[in-house]
Amino acid sequence: MSSESVPNDYKPLTSDNCVKKRIIREGNGPIPSPLSVVTENTALVHYVSRVSQKDQKENPKPEKADIIETTRGKYGMPITASIGTGQLIKGFDLIIKSMRVGELCEAIVSPEYAYGEVGSPSYIPPTCQLEFEVELLKFSESSISRKLLKLTKLKAQGNDHYKNQDYKEALSFYEKALKIIEDERADQQLSTNDEEVFDQTFRDMEVALGSNIAACFLAQQNYKDAEKYCRKVLSKDPDNIKVIYRIGQAYLGMNEFEKGLDAITKGLQIAPTETSLKALQKSIISAQSRYQSKEKAIYSRMFSST
């Protein structure tokens, strides 16, 4: 099956149209969570992989050589594959992630998501398009994936309360989610290398939760705690413009104008055209000027009365 003759019922799984799929039999289970990119998720699958008909014509092989691998032979058994770990070629990984348990599908994978320009010596030609038939029998998400899904739900609940200006309730959901991550880190007793993997897995969620917690404290005019959480986030993501803006707000609220201006200056070095930072910079300068004028007036009255 050449890429030029792909039937209309094939749907793209990637924005560049390099992985396409059509469903032969609908499944009845849930689609694996988008969070299943995390390591240690497993899938039980039957599959057949072939060199495409187009590439077979250009690179003739012995009879039945178009079949690369199959679990459908006389003594074939389904395989258990680790998803999101790099064990599978990228295209096969994406196919499985798009399926429901019980689903049977056919898919076409371009070389970019298969074996690339090199191919694989002896059985896969260079720049080769592959065809797959895949049946997903079972999918098991890791405990980390389940935790990430729970964190996502807690964060969404917090967001709903924040939108309703119920900042105290929003804060409780964000803090609960953040504690799950902190407890997970403590329970794992991680080595240095494992700590790096853990941080890669949870970093984006930690950053988002910390930023949202800071926003709640700002809304409650608790500038000290807002500044504390902003600093925590910036230790992990120093170029986060939203959090730089929020720490600037916190410093403004505490009348720590120089710290606020320093933070905004660093932010503008990262994003020179960011209008929110420029506006906050003006606000801090104006507030600093008013504050200094008041202090000057107070000192002037003190000395004039002596």
UniProtKB/TrEMBL annotation:
<keyword id="KW-0007">Acetylation</keyword>
<keyword id="KW-0597">Phosphoprotein</keyword>
<dbReference type="InterPro" id="IPR011990">
    <property type="entry name" value="TPR-like_helical_dom_sf"/>
</dbReference>
<dbReference type="GO" id="GO:0005739">
    <property type="term" value="C:mitochondrion"/>
</dbReference>
<dbReference type="InterPro" id="IPR050754">
    <property type="entry name" value="FKBP4/5/8-like"/>
</dbReference>
<dbReference type="InterPro" id="IPR046357">
    <property type="entry name" value="PPIase_dom_sf"/>
</dbReference>
<dbReference type="GO" id="GO:0005829">
    <property type="term" value="C:cytosol"/>
</dbReference>
<dbReference type="Pfam" id="PF14559">
    <property type="entry name" value="TPR_19"/>
</dbReference>
<dbReference type="Pfam" id="PF07719">
    <property type="entry name" value="TPR_2"/>
</dbReference>
<keyword id="KW-0488">Methylation</keyword>
<keyword id="KW-0963">Cytoplasm</keyword>
<dbReference type="GO" id="GO:0005634">
    <property type="term" value="C:nucleus"/>
</dbReference>
<keyword id="KW-0496">Mitochondrion</keyword>
<dbReference type="InterPro" id="IPR001179">
    <property type="entry name" value="PPIase_FKBP_dom"/>
</dbReference>
<dbReference type="GO" id="GO:0003755">
    <property type="term" value="F:peptidyl-prolyl cis-trans isomerase activity"/>
</dbReference>
<feature type="repeat" description="TPR">
    <location>
        <begin position="151"/>
        <end position="184"/>
    </location>
</feature>
<dbReference type="InterPro" id="IPR019734">
    <property type="entry name" value="TPR_rpt"/>
</dbReference>
<keyword id="KW-0539">Nucleus</keyword>
<keyword id="KW-0697">Rotamase</keyword>
<dbReference type="InterPro" id="IPR013105">
    <property type="entry name" value="TPR_2"/>
</dbReference>
<keyword id="KW-0802">TPR repeat</keyword>
<keyword id="KW-0206">Cytoskeleton</keyword>
<keyword id="KW-0677">Repeat</keyword>
<feature type="domain" description="PPIase FKBP-type">
    <location>
        <begin position="40"/>
        <end position="140"/>
    </location>
</feature>
<dbReference type="Pfam" id="PF00254">
    <property type="entry name" value="FKBP_C"/>
</dbReference>
<feature type="repeat" description="TPR">
    <location>
        <begin position="241"/>
        <end position="274"/>
    </location>
</feature>
<keyword id="KW-0493">Microtubule</keyword>
<protein>
    <recommendedName>
        <fullName>peptidylprolyl isomerase</fullName>
        <ecNumber>5.2.1.8</ecNumber>
    </recommendedName>
</protein>
<keyword id="KW-0413">Isomerase</keyword>
<dbReference type="GO" id="GO:0005874">
    <property type="term" value="C:microtubule"/>
</dbReference>
